[in-house]
Amino acid sequence: MTFGTIATWRMAHDGVVEATKLLKSGTNASEALEVAIKQVEDYPFYKSVGYGGLPNAKGILEMDAAFMNGDTFQIGAVAGIVDIKNPISVAKKLSEEKFNSFLIGEGATQYAKDEGFEVKEMLTERAKKIWEKRIEDMKSKQLNPYDGHDTVGVVTLDQMGSMSVGTSSSGLFMKKPGRVGDSPLSGSGFYVDSTVGGAAATGLGEDLMKGILSYEIVRKMSEGLSPQEACDQTVYPFHDLLTQRYGKAGAFSLIAMNKKGEWGVATNVEFTFSVANNTTEPTIFMANRGENQTTTITPITKEWLDAYEKRIKAPIE
């Protein structure tokens, strides 16, 4: 039977491994997706998602997350939620609500508490130290405050043909309190239709939300394009159009998987992702923009992985 998972960034690989085990055993797409994203949210060394994520300009860790069911189009989302262990689980729960399915700030946090979700101090000492260092560097070196927008986005396909998509992010480091990017916004940060496929985005939300790229990729797949063709023909023309109209385009990357378990990616930066299906074990790849509006994809080397692990766990001086 066909199944599959694709996720943004190397940080999602362990989650892809766990989701693949579940999908092989017959677990549904929604449960597998939640497990995959929780793996990332719970890991303290990933600076852009969940526990250990970097805070806003006031030192507060505000998190965004979204979930969508490709069978029913049910969507749940939270933005600016604080001190809740797994925002993706709150978003998934909210997708069951007919009304009030997208909550922000205090409302999102209170809902999570009322529903019994685990409350946890999500700002780690490590993340706080990075924030304090950035404040000092901004004063002494006139450093740009903004850094990091690596959302975890996941698409899953189960053996019954159902699909789900989800995102989770702590957003732009040093963002203004209340800032929300594309991650919890349907069509921009994510979209899925089980009869077609799904897509998710990572990158600078302020630019991603100008294009509704996740929806556009799914729409192109519905017209018969492969996931790779849909990604290439959506991401690169939009990058060029945004550069022409706006003067520049921030970093962004998109992933996609169709109902057959076929996958694709496109990016305007160096971008890692993890993917698996019924014919391929979980594998990490590197993607770059190639020639003629296409994407070049190569497997990650052991040396790259070793350097990555060393870098993310390096002591903060």
UniProtKB/TrEMBL annotation:
One of its GO terms (molecular function) is N4-(beta-N-acetylglucosaminyl)-L-asparaginase activity. GO terms for cellular component: cytoplasm. The active site is at T151. It comes from the Bacteria. It holds the Pfam family Asparaginase_2. Substrate binds at R179, V180, G181, D182, T202, G203, L204, G205. Gene3D superfamilies: (Glycosyl)asparaginase (3.60.20.30). The record marks D150, T151 as: Cleavage. InterPro entries: Ntn_hydrolases_N, Peptidase_T2. It comes from Vagococcus carniphilus. This is N(4)-(Beta-N-acetylglucosaminyl)-L-asparaginase.
